[in-house]
Design a protein that fits this description.
- This protein has 108 residues and is mostly helical.
- The chain folds into 2 domains: 1-58, no CATH class; 61-108.
- The chain has helices spanning 45-57, 63-75, 81-106, and strands spanning 20-24, 37-41.
């Protein structure tokens, strides 16, 4: 359905401005095209270097969130009961549909 796209940096501009824009070409109804999206970033070398340095200082794992979810799981608060009920309904419906498909295929 949706594929992953990689990001490509063609050049680093030495201009001081940092404008960001996104242009989207109108699409025909019910079509998805990855060629229509375009983003342009004009960063100075110093700005880019600063962003890279800041990103490298960020932790790969947000331990406070991991610890919070671990605590919710241990206490029985995660996943929420409405999520479990909805998931059970979807799985049960899928099993019922698969059973109907299999029995109708066997009758042919």
């Amino acid at each position: 359905m949706y594929g992953l796209r990689s990001m490509q940096i063609n050049s680093i501009n030495t201009s001081p401005a940092v404008p960001v824009s996104k242009a989207t070409t109108p699409q025909a109804t019910n079509t998805v095209s990855s060629d229509s999206d375009h983003a342009e970033f004009n960063l100075s070398a110093d700005s880019f270097s600063s962003l890279v340095n800041r990103a490298s200082q960020m932790p790969e794992v947000r331990t406070e969130l991991v610890d919070a979810f671990k605590a919710r799981i241990r206490s029985g608060q995660y996943p929420p009961q409405d999520t479990v009920a909805s998931l059970s309904h979807v799985i049960g419906s899928g099993i019922m549909q698969a059973g109907k498909s299999a029995s109708s295929a066997g009758n042919n």
